[in-house]
Structures are given as C-alpha cells and as structure tokens.
Design goal:
The protein has helices at residues 10-21, 54-63, 79-88, 101-117, 141-151, 204-217, 226-230; strands at 2-6, 25-30, 35-37, 44-47, 68-70, 92-95, 124-131, 158-161, 168-175, 182-188, 193-199, 222-224. By secondary structure, it is an alpha/beta fold. A 7-stranded mixed beta sheet has the order 3-2-1-4-5-6-12, with helices on both faces. The protein has a 5-stranded mixed beta sheet with strand order 8-9-7-10-11, covered by helices on one side. The two termini are 36 Å apart. The model has no long low-confidence stretch (mean pLDDT 97). Bound molecules: 1,4-dihydronicotinamide adenine dinucleotide and the ligand O=C(O)C1=N[C@H](C(=O)O)C[C@H](O)C1.
C-alpha cells in the first residue's frame, strides 16, 4: 500500500516505522513546515496532525480522491462537514478518537458497563484521562468517546471538564511527562468503587490500528468507524 502521511510527528513517525516493517511504502509526508514526495502517488492517506490542521488535511485527501484515515483529535465540530464532503465526492473516510484495538474493546466494555450500571443509582460515574505534557486538546478525544457512550444510558445529560454537578458527567484531564494515554471510568458509591482502566504502554497500538484501518478502507467507499473495521457491535 502506498501511503501519504499527513502530519509527521510522534504518530506519523511511529506509523512510518510500522508501515515499512509490514511492506508498505510512504510516498508522501507533510508536516507544519514542509513536505516530501508526491501525494498523487498515494493509494491512501493517514493523518495525525493538530486540531487546527485536521480539516484542511482531510479536505486535501478527499479532493485528491484518496481514502483518508484521520486520528487527529480536537476538531470534531467540523466532523459533519467532512462526512458531507466525503459523500459528495464518493470518497472513503474513517475518523476514530483512538485506533488501538485494546481501546476499541474498552469502548465496548464501557458501553456494556454503562448499560448495566444505569439501574444502580447509588453509583456515580466519572471519567479520568492522563496524557503527556505536549498534548494540545483536553479532554482527550478518547475520553469524549467514552463519556458520550456512557451518556447514551446514564441519566446525566452532558459531560464537562471537572464538573461538580450531579447532573453532569465529570471528566478529569491530567498532564504528566511521557504518559502515552491512560483512561479510567469509575463508578463510585459510599460502599465501594468499580473502576475500568485502559493504559497504553506505547504508541504502537494506535499506529497499528491506523494501518489496519487504512488497509481495510483502501478499496471501500463511504464513511466508517473502527467498529466496522474490527467487526465490533454495540452493547446490546
Ligand atoms: N486516534 C488515535 O488513535 C490517536 C490520536 N492522536 C492524535 O493525533 C494527533 C497528533 O498526535 P502526535 O503525532 O502525538 O502529535 P505531534 O505534535 O507529535 O505531531 C503533529 C504533526 O502534525 C504536524 N502539523 C501540525 N500542524 C500542522 C499544519 N498546520 N499543517 C501540517 N502539519 C501540521 C506537525 O508538524 C507534526 O508533524 C493529536 O491530535 C493526537 O491527539 C494521537 C495518538 C493516537
Ligand atoms: O494525544 C495523544 O497522545 C493521544 N490522543 C488521543 C486522544 O485524544 O484520545 C488518543 C490517545 O489517547 C493518545
């Protein structure tokens, strides 16, 4: 597979290494200052850039008729616009807040737990995420996905950072040196606490998942999710 890498930072470089090890080639890469290679030579684009750059990267790929896998977080107010553009161009598009297989299994476990716990009103649910110091957005995209899936079943109406209101699902975002990504969902009562935790040990899981998504998407048309790629279903 001939890959265009839009964004060549921590994730772009990890994807490059693992893609080359799997026999793929990188024919184009771009970062904030410059670019290398020809995007026209690519069969698929993978973009991990910044909240400010994601929309123009996705447009660039769709306008070049390239299937696009986007992992950048913090730009989702423009998601519907990108879906419309993909449909208009009869293109192919996957966004995931987290491409790792483990986190996507965690998403399914989280939905199952949210559905089960909804009837046990003595437990109050909260979400905590911890990431490295360079992370630009808070809360993480993964924490937002987790929170939105809990809200499908819980009586709380919305999520917010550091909320103290009973009506609101609180997300706490911590920043610590070199943490790759840790997410914890806690159900707390006066008697006990039930916690679900996912901890990434490296960026390889995110990168492998993005390459898997690109291989899966390459010959398809439409807008998909990692649930489609992995054949995962919802909690019911
Ligand atoms: N969905 C997932 O599985 C994962 C998502 N991420 C997300 O991916 C994004 C990138 O993460 P990292 O690689 O760790 O960041 P990074 O800061 O190490 O790299 C970002 C890259 O994007 C480039 N870039 C930034 N602004 C640009 C612009 N205006 N035009 C062109 N290139 C631009 C930078 O030059 C750099 O090469 C973040 O939003 C992060 O939250 C990170 C890991 C996993
Ligand atoms: O910025 C990161 O590093 C990560 N970002 C994603 C997010 O915002 O959820 C995924 C992963 O947790 C690493």
């Amino acid at each position: 597979m001939k890959i265009a890498l839009l964004g060549y930072g921590k994730m772009g470089k990890t994807i490059e290494r693992l893609a080359l090890e799997s026999g793929h080639s990188i024919v184009f890469k771009s970062w904030v200052e410059s670019s290398e290679g020809n995007i026209e030579d690519a069969e698929v684009a993978i973009e991990f850039s910044s909240p400010e750059a994601a929309v123009s990267n996705i447009k660039k790929a769709l306008e070049a008729d390239l299937p696009i896998v986007s992992g950048t977080t913090g730009w989702l107010e423009s998601y519907d616009e990108m879906v419309k553009l993909c449909e208009k161009r009869n293109g192919s598009f996957i966004y995931a807040s987290n491409f790792s297989v483990g986190v996507n299994l965690f998403f399914s476990i989280n939905e199952y737990a949210a559905k089960l716990m909804a009837q046990w009103k003595e437990y109050d649910v909260s979400v905590e995420e911890t990431h490295h110091l360079e992370k630009k957005d808070a809360p993480s995209g993964t924490a937002i996905t987790i929170a939105e899936n809990i809200l499908k079943y819980n009586s709380k109406k919305e999520w917010n950072l550091d909320s103290t209101s009973d009506e609101v699902l609180s997300i706490t975002a911590k920043r610590e040196e070199d943490v790759k990504g840790t997410h914890i969902v806690s159900y707390e009562s006066n008697i006990d606490t039930i916690s679900l935790k996912h901890e990434a040990h490296s960026r390889e899981g995110f990168a492998k998942g993005a390459i898997l998504a690109a291989e899966w998407l390459k010959d398809k048309k439409g807008v998909f999710s990692m649930k489609d790629v992995l054949g995962l279903t919802n909690a019911d």
